[in-house]
Amino acid sequence: MEYYSGKSINNKIAIGKLFYYKKQEAKVKRERIEDVENEVKRFDEARELAKEQVLDLYEKAKSEVGEAEAAIFEVHMMMLDDEDYGDSVCNMIESQMVCAPYAIASTGENFANMFAEMEDEYMQARSADIKDISERMVSILLGNNDTGAVFDEPVILVADDLAPSETIQLDKDKLLGFVTRHGSMNSHTAILARTMNIPALIQVDIKPEWHGKEAVLDGYSALLTIEPDESALFKAREQVAQDNKKEELLKELKGKETVTKSGQKVKLYANIGNVADTAAALMNDAEGIGLFRSEFLYLESADFPTENEQFLAYKIVAENMAGKPVIIRTLDIGADKQVDYFNLKKEENPALGYRAIRICLNQTDIFRTQLRAILRASAFGNIAIMFPMIISLSEVQRAKEILAEVKSELKEQNISYKDVEVGVMIETPASVMISDELAKEVDFFSIGTNDLTQYTLAADRQNPALDDMIDIHHPAILKMIEITVKNAHDNDIWVGICGELGADLELTKFFLDLGVDELSVSSSSILPVREKIREQE
Amino acid sequence: MKNFNYVVKDTLGLHARPAGLLVKEAGKFESTIMVHTKGKQANAKKLLALMSLAVKQEDEVAVTIEGADEDVAAQAMEVFFQTNL
């Protein structure tokens, strides 16, 4: 059993035989020609034929992966029509008396190099497109009818590189996945693989002798396992079965409303812990982000993250969610999380210590930076803010004062922001008991059941020895939720649940009966919860 | 000659797709249409030249239009930039 790592395009697994594909290298010789006019004519004919072929690919891609992704072949057609490209080929033929294939190959290389040398990663990836169209014309002229990789059983394709046109021509029914040596995450081949939902690894140190061997392509860990043993195979098969089940659910429930049979609607949002999680949230059809934990910005950084770093992260998520709500929870860090530059003193009971909103209201510079970043990002989508670990009314009032100060600062500087909704996490017994008063200060509540359970039952959630002793459906917790929901609704604000209990299917009916307005769960739980809700009367 | 300035709003900048659309649109007019940015310029009827400008979001471009149909062309170009970029 051997492992090779690469970069993963899709969170998917493929199990099967490897098929090593070596592209027929078109051997282009520099040949001298006499009849310039005829050679230019040959180029024109090859160009016309290439355009027809690309048009076919465009139609094929359009029906298989949709118009947006097929657009690359439209671009290929325009590249074929490009004046500068055509002029360069004709010039070479005329001035150097070289054959058309040579003039095309050289011109293609020049333009490909020009793009490869650009700073912009997206433009660099376009060099593959130029190569693709140039090779197509050369193949036409040399009479190569390389039909690409052809295989008669399902395989995982291994190749140095795949051009977009090669990817779209592959027989999808027999293609389990692909592994390439080159390619970038931004290449159209990567984008096509993503759209076609094919497991794929790029930048892998591939070897020709892999041909015919069994392998597991694991897109989750970006690993290729050659000749996996029984236990590795077993694990992979289990994951595939799980993925298949999820996909079926997805097909069935994607785009469907989260509503009970009698018409009670619930907003079903996703919890995310960093920017990349947004993709999974969208894939699973999240109706919004109910909890965007902002800690990653602090944990993954060697010093306090700047306003701009934070702004960009929030903005990307807001833009990707395209108008759907994104609720950002402000800093929730304490002595239990290792962040050196905070210089937090070691505490006996970090869960009960100097953390979250307590740090924010004491070291307001940290808080102000975050609020500025969030407000600036609010101009780019539908953002809301919520404060964690609240135990008293004065904390909420103070946090809101600071927010108002930051807003007027932005206004003075002519920086745009929106009037965001402000909410609090209900995760301490104290906040439940005063939820009637808190409800008059904020726009919404989000019940954090994990901390609420630990603080209510006096049970450390990090201690596995307690797992079997603690009833996660303890009546005290359910009552706390009930009180919170009632106080929210009595004061005309909405209330959601963002802890793990939100995804607990045994409680779905209970939440519906209480009239909970929103459930925010991990992305993988969205569709199972939607299914459960749609089954309810 | 007509001209206007425009700040690109598209997050990807003047990437392949809109560049291709721009070539198509510019091709409808007789006038010479040039896109200038960061000390470089490209003919709006040439795809690869346009792409090589590597225009990014927030970049300002100046568009000049010169020719017999410059009035209509300038109007069409302004609309194109506003709706596609």
Automatic annotation (TrEMBL), chain A:
Under the heading SUPFAM superfamilies, the entry gives: Enzyme I of the PEP:sugar phosphotransferase system HPr-binding (sub)domain, Phosphoenolpyruvate/pyruvate domain, Phosphohistidine domain
Under Pfam families, the record lists: PEP-utilisers_N, PEP-utilizers, PEP-utilizers_C
Q: Where is the PEP-utilising enzyme mobile domain?
A: 151-220
> Where is this chain's protein located in or outside the cell?
Cytoplasm
Domain PEP-utilising enzyme C-terminal positions: 250-536
Family indicated by similarity: Belongs to the PEP-utilizing enzyme family.
Name it.
Answer: Phosphoenolpyruvate-protein phosphotransferase
Please name the source species: Aequitasia blattaphilus
From TrEMBL, chain B:
Q: Which PROSITE patterns match?
A: PTS_HPR_DOM
- Keyword annotations from UniProtKB, A to Z: Cytoplasm, Phosphotransferase system
Task: Indicate where this protein resides in the cell.
Answer: Cytoplasm
InterPro entries reported in the protein's UniProt record: HPr, HPr-like, HPr-like_sf
Keyword Cytoplasm present in the record's keywords: the answer is yes
Annotated HPr domain ranges read 1-85
Q: What CDD domains would the database entry show?
A: PTS-HPr_like (cd00367)
Q: What is this protein called?
A: HPr family phosphocarrier protein
* Organism whose genome encodes this protein: Aequitasia blattaphilus
Q: What is the organism lineage in this UniProt record?
A: Bacteria, Bacillati, Bacillota, Clostridia, Lachnospirales
